[in-house]
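The freezer alarm interrupted the setup, so I double-checked each line after restarting. Inputs confirmed:
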Amino acid sequence: MSASARLKLTARPARSLQELRRTIVSRIGWVACGLALLCVIGPLLDIVGVVAYRGLAAFSIKLFTSTSNGVTGGLLNAIEGTFIISLFGMLIAVPVGIGAGIYLSEYGSNRVGGVIRFLSDVLTGTPSIVLGYFSYIVFVTSLGWGFSLIAAAITLAILIVPYLARITELALRQVPVSMREAAFALGATEPTVVFRVILPGAATGVMTGALLALAISVGETAPLIYTAGWSNFLWNGRFTNEPVGYLTYVIWTFIDQPNAQSHALAFAAAFLVMMVVLAINIGVRLTVRRSTRVV
Amino acid sequence: MKFRPFRLSLLSLSLLIPAALCAVILFLLIYSAPAIGFNGLGFVTGITWNLGDLYGDPVSVRGFTVPNGADYGILVFVTGTLLSSFIAILIAVPLSVGAAIFLAEAVPHHIRPVLSLLVELVAVVPSVVFGLWGIAVLIPLIGHYVSPSGNGYGLLTASIVLALMITPIIATTLLDALLQVPKENRESAFGLGATHFEVVTKAMMPMVRTTLIGGIVLALGRALGETLAVAMVAGGALNIMPTSLFSPISTIASFILTQLDSAESDPTNMAVRSLAEIALVLFVITLAMNAGAKLLTSGALNVRKRQA
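Predicted 3D structure, all chains:
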């Protein structure tokens, strides 16, 4: 008893000092890590808050029913422009991206597949402004299409095809090999296996990819500045030599105008774009999480 | 070999991806060839970007027809790009390491998905919305409290916005790696009497170091090519090197974005061709970064295999 008490007396001060130091360092470390997380999430919440507050304040019926007039007016032309540019971009990108994804997943475990995968990654990493400039010198000037819907749609398609191909490939790889074997054993041909067995089996994953690609194309600005131009009018149905307005252009240029009306339009446009992008991303992540939990 | 029309049609669809990439490189090269010849090596060392006399008659210099006095140097923009991305990394790395550690170890299991979803969402906010927030919130803040001149536009603001945009890339990469550290490593560190924080910093972090570096290089590649947000808050410097954190800067990407209108007014087209050359330089820089990230992350796999 007395021996252990003496041991405590002699051993404790030295140990507790070191222990104290280590405990304090750990405490400070955890607090610092927590603050870091706050610094990451805080700005996001502030962005959503500020944009929602100032964007909603600018909402009115007129915003959705009238076109812009210079740097004031409504957003109807921009909303329509963003919609059709994304629509035609997706129309070009979805067949190519899903086709490439099918090839990479089903027949792409060879050298050709490896090369395509690598170059697709390189394309993903290419800054979007470089793609926009390429489209400007090729489609807008050299081919003489001018600022136009088709130039913008092709540029967006180049931007999102690699994402689509990658996500489709990953989704198709989740389909069990036994399902392919069963279908082949029943005498199905390759197209039948792909379109009737594998694609339906991976439908959620492929839809996820398409939705994420849509979110990217709605939020992009840099590749459109050089290709779509800007127009105060609604689209008149022409694919070439007819500039198209879009929402992100409103954000980028109207905020530099001196009048409060233009700023309000910029925030309203930002709110619309942000809501679409966040809604798609949150929705996709929730469904993916739920489906993986079931599995 | 059997002729398989289905496979071939799928292959031709997927070959469109490499074809697009090759077209981008090829057409930028062809289009900028006269500019590459005219500018020579002075392109990357020159500070002055001068379109020359656009209204006078073009002159012939070294065999190229250019506006009188035209001089294209991009050192200012290269410096702006590298400096802003470097400072952004300096800010983003501690933030994302801290956030990832906190998410991996300190947050209860049922809250973690919500918080990590929020971190992932930072990455999907469109660049132009970040720029808008920078103008509306960050610039008044920095202009009022930090900047000695009272002007919030400049290197520091651009770096902070960039840092916020790339933080989720590093944080999510690191979080995935931390969650995959074998249980045995953590348990043996605990068994040696380490505090929870020491387990993380001394036993877990060294194991994920290579992944962390890969994530950082990937984020650097993103930061170098970032366009809209930077163009909106960086102040847009021309012909002047940054001297302090509050100097206005231009990055390569933001310069391409903002200069087309003036370049188009050049009747000889040399300015537009020089912009194409800048785009090519930016492409090469980001390609090098992404290739580096790829090498590092695949190297990380090898290390892990050897340890196992």
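Quick read of the result. The longest strand of chain A covers residues 68-69.
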